[in-house]
Structure prediction request, 324 residues.
Amino acid sequence: MSKELILQKIKAYSRIMLFRHVRIDGDCVGATKGLKEIIKATWPEKEVYLIDDEHSDYLAFLGPDDEPVDNAFYEDALGIVIDVGSADRISNKRYMLCKELIKIDHHIEREPYGDICWVEEERSSACEMIADFYHTFQDQLVLTSRAATYIYTGMVTDSGRFQYEGVTGETLRLAALMLDHGVDTERLYAHLYLRDFHTLKFKAYIYETMHITENGVAYVAISREMQNRFGLTFEEACASIGYLDGIRDCLCWLAFIESSETQTIRVRLRSRFVAINTLAEKYRGGGHACASGATIYNEEEMRALLADADALVKEYKETHEGWL
Prediction:
């Protein structure tokens, strides 16, 4: 059983390095911070490092990561990668220096990696898996209120406040277990969901400028100029995908966000009922069946992706009933 092997490895190593994916989100941050806190609370003598150059203003309230260490620190360590479907998306490339590597993930597995793999594609979040790991071995592990807060944060954000596909009774039972350990939900939700005035003005602008294709794909394109106009961070621009859900007859919604750092266009894809992960893979991405990401380089590729998405939704509507 993968979970038992993972616990054995954690017990065996005195130094553990934690890793997550590029373009960090609440799930990968919550899962890595949560597992680190559990390990340190259970075995205070162990060295546990979480090192990542990426920063998120949105998640800054969860606290900073560890300072960089020499390569030698990795060489005799156990590496644990959480919430990363393929190795090329691991943010800290020094994971390759670790003596052994564990993968804990809930994405559709395209490129297996690691010495020990625990993958459950049906889970709503990687944090749900960390919560399950604690629940399985709670007689041997210590869960602090801080760890519970980290984990609950990822469960909430990756599940869309428990409304996305993949949320089950088990998800809610594990979330309740985290709440029982002292999560301050009022403060947490204030950090996650309060918005600055300029963000609300941007949201209103999105509703004025969004488009819908013939067969029901809602989309918006957010240029660097638009981001500067509204004083947005890249994260805030990416959050616009959430503004497009809930439109009747639209089974897929896309946000095209121009990146000034990479000179690419980051695409966020979401859907209801229709699987869009293979579409994302066609455009240098991937993810879950109804929540994926991709990368394109120009308006021609944007038009091509939209045409593919529109055709996908058309086919689904023609061959299925009850899609509202």
User: Anything to note?
Assistant: Residues 29 and 69 are 19 Å apart (CA to CA). Residues 2-192 form a domain with the inorganic pyrophosphatase (n-terminal core) fold (CATH 3.90.1640.10). The chain has two domains: 2-192, 198-319. The first strand starts at residue 15 and ends at 19.
